[in-house]
Automatic annotation (TrEMBL), chain A:
This is Lcl C-terminal domain-containing protein. It comes from Pseudoalteromonas luteoviolacea (strain 2ta16). Pfam families: Lcl_C. InterPro entries: Lcl_C. Residues 53-201 form the Lcl C-terminal domain. The lineage of its organism: Bacteria, Pseudomonadati, Pseudomonadota, Gammaproteobacteria, Alteromonadales.
UniProtKB/TrEMBL annotation, chain B:
The chain crosses the membrane at residues 7-29, 49-67, 87-109, 115-135, 156-174. CDD domains: DOMON_like_cytochrome. It is a multi-pass membrane protein. Its main location: membrane. This is Cytochrome b domain protein. It is found in: Cell membrane.
Length: 225, 499
């Protein structure tokens, strides 16, 4: 009887012990391709923020992250395609230029700002930008990783690819530039005068090409969050 | 009753009662946090369906045992102690079974829910006092008494019959539903979606009342919801009213403290806020009518294979059969002034995004063309935030800050004194446009009651909406300043149109 009582007590204690063990929280895991980077160039864990750029390990690029704070990076601003020589000057809509906006305005202002410690911001190539296309996880979202690329509209985004023959409906406008549409996840050639969105990109200097956050840094940052 | 028959019934009863208890605990955890430590011992998933299955099993066993005992009672001579404990077992089992069926049938659910839980604890007490005592007294020899020595054809066929009848009754009870008759109105009748319900047609429409239980902050966790429905050739109108003593529109307010701006919260970090939140109401529609939201609720902290854990341990909404369920989510702050309910859906579990702390499985918003509400912080952190925008002119604490009545936050302009509150909700534009704006809605609170009017086309032709027609099933849930801790009812409400 005493042995059975002791055995029962052990079983009950075991059950209580299991119940009182701290239960695991959802786990943070790193994205294979993207890392959040702050305005000052500090790397964040996936659950931290705010961030101003995204490091693209696959392409060794840094992407501009759009905002909704009416700064030059606001995702609502649109731009006509213009590289200083070719294209259409000042045919987009933004608040930060005395006139209207074109792609060269955003590039100039972002380089002046040295966003994320970079001053080599440019338009992405069509291949670079279309490498961001991925199926949305919800019908309300654009065809991009919206956990890293926030404030991306379901519309056209300019690339650097230009001098492209326009499709039939725009033929009288001559040539245009390639845009990637994140609503459909497809590429189109549009007249330079079209107002489209822009997401800039910067090539990483050779020294920064493998900026892997150490495990210790990530965990510390997670705790701080 | 011969001894071997009793032993067979006893073994089946043990299995069925244990099944009932563990599935019941998992269901109880949804609204009772103090039970969370035992979560690790419990199964996860579609527990309501399993619980109902075990309930059918124990009900059939009780009926079979009583009928058999009347015809041919078992002769046994337990000690006075065990005789008394057996009476406790009978009372607990009967109370748990009857109260459970009353909750299922929506008969005084708010009264029978606590009775059901007390009965369950009595059942556990019975298990300890009956089974454990026998084990202590007799040790391993209990097994030789407990397990049948031989199974004859009569026992096997009896068990097969019980399982077959049980399966049939389970299917019936799983798909049983209430009915809401929809009153037909002329196309020319104008129903103003204003939350006032002062059109005479509402007086003529039949009322269906359902008691919803298990929510946070309501008295005893329950509120009665009354529903009326009208339909013309094109649209269906719903008038929904529920008791809620307080109008809650204090949605995650931002408070200026000595350490900067802070989100006022009590659980928002775990996505289970229950203090600083708006009132809400949800209507789910499905072409299927199975209990507990037509198989869309999966309880537990990790109920879906290969999907991440949730922060609150309660569960996920998702459709694992590939079919979409429609979900209208009216929010007293975020959508009420848009005169809309957020048109959402429950679909297959979405892909997990590594950059987002919250994973919501199958609960998703329909697509939209424009319009949005956004939260008034640049990035949420439990330790402090920076507001996204400040009001153009200092003003009293509003529920919603309009985008064009505010300016981007700048530290130099943040001269607000400690103790200042700011709204956390910004209307980016007036309202949603597109698929997400299919449900027009307006709620008004008066004298401890919300009155909500909703209207939607019978068929929106959206792949994320369910057509409103005879046979469409509906569930309703009320939220009293709670993010996810909503009330619920078991059986579906089936719509019946006379058009």
């Amino acid at each position: 009887m005493i042995r059975r009582l002791i055995l029962s007590a052990i079983i009950v204690t075991l059950f209580i012990g299991i119940c009182l063990l701290p239960q695991a929280q959802p786990k943070l895991s790193q994205h294979k391709r993207f890392t959040k980077v702050t305005y000052d160039g500090v790397h964040l864990s996936p659950w931290q923020g705010p961030w101003a750029c995204v490091l693209d390990k696959q392409n060794q690029l840094l992407w501009e992250v759009k905002t909704d704070n009416e700064s030059i990076h606001d995702g609502y601003w649109t731009y006509s395609w213009f590289d200083g020589v070719q294209g259409k000057r000042n045919f987009g809509d933004c608040y930060y230029e005395p006139d209207r906006c074109d792609t060269s305005d955003l590039i100039r202002r972002t380089n002046e700002q040295t966003l994320c410690d970079q001053s080599n911001w440019r338009l992405p190539t069509a291949t670079e930008l279309s490498s961001l296309i991925q199926n949305p996880t919800s019908p309300a979202q654009p065809h991009i990783a919206n956990d890293f690329f926030i404030h991306i509209k379901q519309g056209d985004y300019w690339t650097s690819e230009h001098n492209q023959p326009l499709p039939k409906q725009y033929r009288q406008k001559g040539v245009g530039a390639t845009a990637i549409n994140f609503h459909f996840g497809k590429r189109y050639t549009l007249p330079y005068r079209n107002a489209a969105f822009v997401m800039l990109v910067a090539d990483l200097p050779a020294a920064n090409t493998s900026p892997q956050i150490s495990r210790r840094t990530t965990i510390t940052q997670h705790k701080q969050e | 009753m011969d001894r071997q028959t009793f032993i067979v019934l006893h073994v089946v009863a043990i299995l069925v009662v244990i099944g009932n208890i563990i599935t019941g605990f998992r269901i109880a955890i949804i609204s009772q946090d103090w039970l969370t430590p035992i979560s690790v011992l419990l199964p996860q998933g579609e527990m309501h369906i399993w619980h109902l299955g075990f309930a059918v099993g124990i009900t059939l066993l009780i009926i079979y045992y009583v009928c058999y005992s009347i015809r041919s009672p078992l002769r046994s001579y337990p000690s006075t102690y065990h005789k008394l404990i057996n009476y406790l077992g009978y009372i607990a089992l009967l109370s748990a079974t009857l109260s459970g069926w009353c909750i299922w049938a929506n008969i005084y659910s708010q009264i029978f829910r606590p009775i059901h839980q007390i009965a369950m604890w009595l059942m556990i007490a019975y298990f300890v006092l009956h089974a454990w005592m026998y084990i202590l007294q007799k040790g391993r020899t209990v097994l030789s008494v407990l397990l049948p020595k031989r199974l004859n054809l009569r026992h096997c066929s009896g068990i097969v019959c019980l399982v077959a009848v049980g399966y049939f009754i389970h299917t019936l009870t799983l798909n049983a539903s209430h009915q809401l008759n929809v009153l037909t109105i002329e196309d020319s009748v104008l129903i103003d979606i204003d939350g006032k319900a002062n059109e005479p047609q509402w007086q003529q429409a039949p009322t269906f009342t359902v008691t919803t239980i298990g929510g946070a902050n309501f008295t005893d966790g329950a509120t009665q919801v009354s529903i009326k429905a009208l339909a013309n050739q094109y649209e269906s109108y719903f008038l929904i009213s529920w008791l809620d003593e307080s109008k809650s529109t204090n949605h995650l307010p931002l408070l200026k403290t000595d350490n900067g701006w802070q989100v006022q919260e009590n659980g928002f970090y775990r996505f289970d806020e229950r203090t600083f939140y708006e009132d809400k109401f949800a209507v789910m529609l499905s072409s299927g009518c199975e209990i507990a939201g037509d198989k869309t609720f999966h309880s537990g902290d990790k109920p879906i294979k290969n999907k991440p854990k949730n922060w609150h341990g309660k569960g996920y909404h998702a459709s694992l059969d590939g079919h979409v369920r429609d979900l209208w989510h009216w929010k007293a702050v975020r959508t009420n002034d848009m005169y809309l309910a957020d048109d959402n859906f429950i679909g297959p579990p979405s892909e997990h995004l590594k950059g987002k702390r919250r994973y919501s499985a199958g609960y998703q918003a329909d697509g939209k063309e424009s319009g949005a509400y956004v939260m008034n912080w640049q990035w949420y952190s439990a330790k402090g935030i920076s507001p996204k925008r400040l009001p153009n002119t200092p003003q009293s604490h509003l529920e919603v800050l309009p985008w064009f009545g505010s300016k981007p936050y700048q530290e130099t302009q943040d001269t607000y004194p400690v103790g200042t509150f700011l709204p956390s909700v910004l209307y980016r534009s007036n309202r949603f446009e597109g698929d997400r704006a299919d449900v027009r809605a307006r709620g008004e609170w008066s004298n401890g009651r919300w009155t909500l009017e909703l209207v939607r086309k019978h068929n929106t032709h959206s792949q994320y909406d369910i057509p409103l027609q005879t046979g469409t099933c509906m569930w309703v849930s009320a939220f009293d300043h709670a993010q996810i801790a909503h009330t619920r009812h078991i059986k579906a409400i089936k719509l019946r149109y006379s058009l």
